[in-house]
Amino acid sequence: MRLTGLNSVPYPPILAYGFRPFFLLAGIYAVLTVPIWVITLHGHDLSMMWLPAQIWHAHEMIFGFIIAAVAGFLLTAIPSWTGRRGFAGAPLFGLVLIWIAGRVVMTITTSLGPLMVAIVDMAFIPALTVTILPALIRSGNRRNLFFIALLVSLFAANLHFHLSGSLLVAPLQFAINLILVLVTVVAGRVIPAFTSAGLRQLGSDVGIHRNQLLDRMLIVATIAVVVVDFITPGSVIEGTLAMVTAVLFTVQLVRWQGWRLRSQPILWILHLGYAWIPVAMLLKAIWLLGVPIPGTSWIHALTMGAYSTMILGIMSRASLGHTGRALIAPLTMVVGYYLLIAAGLGRVFGPILNLDHWRLWVSSAAILWCLSFLLFLFVFAPILCSRRADGRAG
Question: Could you state, in order of their start, the residue ranges of all structural domains in the chain?
Answer without folding.
Answer: 13-168
